[in-house]
């Protein structure tokens, strides 16, 4: 499983377009992708800040999401809205979240160049300190 948290700052005045893109992405992701555990957006407390919780059955499923036609098809609109984006790999705390632990993934030779590029752009790395706190 792979879980990520995105903190997104958008350009002033782009709220309507950003929320339209995110609503489309939410619908398409949940309707067409297997292995999506969480894919949700929230407005932050500060103007122009949003959050996205993304959780997939594994890293490869996340990378395939990044390379999907609907994701890539909206990238130009998405990029116009974004002033800054911080995408952080996170690890659910067992017994305090229903999501399983985050694990690293592997791309195979059979995967598309777009999936391989997504894996290079968005590595899923397990932090050493997490292991000491995971319940087995």
Automatic annotation (TrEMBL):
InterPro entries: ABM_dom (IPR007138), Dimeric_a/b-barrel (IPR011008). Gene3D superfamilies: 3.30.70.100. Residues 1-72 form the ABM domain. It comes from the Bacteria. This is ABM domain-containing protein. It comes from Candidatus Marimicrobium litorale. The lineage of its organism: Bacteria, Pseudomonadati, Pseudomonadota, Gammaproteobacteria, Cellvibrionales.
């Amino acid at each position: 499983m792979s879980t990520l948290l995105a903190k997104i700052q958008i350009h002033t005045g782009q709220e309507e377009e950003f929320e339209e893109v995110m609503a489309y992405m939410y619908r398409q992701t949940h309707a067409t992708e297997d292995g999506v555990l969480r894919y949700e957006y929230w407005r932050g407390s500060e103007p122009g800040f949003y959050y996205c919780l993304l959780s997939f059955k594994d890293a490869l499923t996340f990378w395939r999401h990044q390379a999907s036609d609907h994701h890539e098809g909206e990238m130009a609109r998405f990029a116009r809205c974004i002033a800054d984006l911080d995408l952080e790999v996170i690890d659910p705390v067992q017994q305090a979240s229903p999501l399983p632990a985050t694990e690293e993934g592997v791309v195979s030779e059979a995967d598309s160049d777009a999936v391989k590029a997504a894996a290079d752009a968005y590595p899923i790395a397990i932090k050493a300190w997490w292991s000491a706190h995971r319940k087995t």
